[in-house]
Structures are given as structure tokens and as C-alpha cells.
């Protein structure tokens, strides 16, 4: 069984999105999950989409497509040093003092956004890997610094969350992690991320210092 409509495809190792494909496009598209060829359909009735050929056994679902897309989106944003990709923390998941300070200035505040590049700078990210084994786990995206002393794991939550064992493993091994739900914007390809879990209190405390300085000056 496979779903017939997929919003993303690979083309020359790049992710391609429906809004970027026109009817009659002759490029070769392939499925990010199984690598088989996909065809592009833009009819009168159904919205444009990619589809497997009828004999395909691929189990790519909309959820696994989004999961795949989000991982590569993160890795690509880090490589391109894209300041615009944001992680939105619920205010009640922030370290206590930071949360109370934010609320002092805006009592209705519910979110606090951090750019992916703020994380990259803080963790001195040098290298990015998608789905690479680390001990017994395979983080969706794993970053490390030049000396392989500091690690930052990104976990995309679409249909399921990280197990408690995995989170415990990250804590025991001093690996920073952030788990989030990808949110697709109206253009069909821009993502932002709503944080569901993290162990980034040390990083967030440095944000607190930045916040305080901005009020003092
Ligand atoms: Zn497939």
C-alpha cells in the first residue's frame, strides 16, 4: 500500500516542492524514501502532487514525507547559515527566572523564538549529519563541534516522540537535544518548529543574559 500523493520529491539530491514544479517539467523526480521514480501530476480536479507508479510497494506516507523533509530542512539551514529558521519554545518550558522575566515585560507572552543559528553559534557546530548512528541511537540530525566534544541532536516529532530511554541516553552522555513538531507555512515549503521537549536550559540561560542587557541599554 502506498499513498498516491506526495508533496516533496528528490531531484539531483535536492528536495523539490510542488509549488516549484510546473506542468510539463521534464526533470527526473525520485521518492525520498524508496528512491523509485515519481511522476508529477497537475490535473484539473486534484491539486498538483507527486505520485509513485502503480506497481510501487513504497510505504511513503504524508507523515514520513514531512519527517524526511524536516530533517533535511534543518541540516540545510545549518549549512546555509539561515538565520530565519526558528524554534518556538512555549514560555512555560523555559528556565524559571527567564520565564518570569519575559512575563514581566509581556504578561500575555506564550512563546519565545530562537533562531537555529543561535543554537549553532552556542554549540560551536562544525559538522551536521542526518540519520547517522551514534552509539545505539540514530538522531534525526546530529551536530558536533570541531573537537567532537559537544553534540546537539535534533529530533523531529511527527507521529511519535523520542522514547524515555533515548532521552535518558542523551542526558547521560551530555548531548544537548531539542525535539519539535514541524509546522508547514502557507507557501507549502517554509517550515518553523514548535518545541515539545529539550534539555537546553544552559543555552536558554545565556538568552536570559542577552534579554537583560537589551533592557538595560
Ligand atoms: Zn517511495
UniProtKB/TrEMBL annotation:
What sequence ranges are listed for the domain Competence protein CoiA-like N-terminal? 26-61
Record Pfam families: CoiA_N
Classify the source by domain of life: Bacteria
Q: Which InterPro entries match?
A: CoiA-like_N
Name the UniProt record assigns to this protein: Competence protein CoiA family protein
Specify the species.
Answer: Paenibacillus aurantiacus
**What lineage does UniProt assign to this protein's organism?**
Bacteria, Bacillati, Bacillota, Bacilli, Bacillales
Amino acid at each position: 500500500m502506498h499513498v498516491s500523493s506526495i508533496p516533496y520529491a528528490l531531484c539531483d539530491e535536492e528536495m523539490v516542492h510542488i509549488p516549484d514544479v510546473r506542468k510539463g517539467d521534464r526533470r527526473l523526480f525520485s521518492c525520498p524514501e524508496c528512491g523509485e521514480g515519481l511522476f508529477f501530476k497537475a490535473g484539473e480536479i486534484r491539486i498538483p502532487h507527486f505520485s509513485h507508479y502503480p506497481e510501487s510497494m513504497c510505504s511513503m506516507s504524508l507523515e514520513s514525507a514531512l519527517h524526511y523533509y524536516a530533517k533535511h530542512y534543518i541540516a540545510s539551514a545549518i549549512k546555509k547559515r539561515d538565520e530565519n529558521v526558528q524554534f518556538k519554545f512555549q514560555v512555560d518550558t523555559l528556565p524559571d527566572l527567564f520565564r518570569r522575566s519575559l512575563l514581566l515585560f509581556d504578561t500575555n507572552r506564550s512563546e519565545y523564538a530562537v533562531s537555529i543559528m543561535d543554537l549553532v553559534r552556542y554549540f560551536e557546530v562544525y559538522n551536521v549529519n542526518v540519520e547517522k548512528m551514534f552509539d545505539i541511537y540514530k538522531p534525526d540530525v546530529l551536530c558536533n563541534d570541531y573537537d567532537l566534544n559537544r553534540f546537539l541532536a535534533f529530533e523531529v516529532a511527527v507521529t511519535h516522540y523520542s522514547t524515555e530511554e533515548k532521552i535518558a541516553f542523551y542526558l547521560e552522555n551530555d548531548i544537548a537535544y531539542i525535539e519539535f513538531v514541524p509546522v508547514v507555512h502557507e507557501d507549502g515549503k517554509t517550515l518553523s518548529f514548535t518545541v515539545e521537549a529539550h534539555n537546553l536550559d544552559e543555552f536558554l540561560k545565556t538568552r536570559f543574559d542577552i534579554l537583560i542587557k537589551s533592557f538595560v541599554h
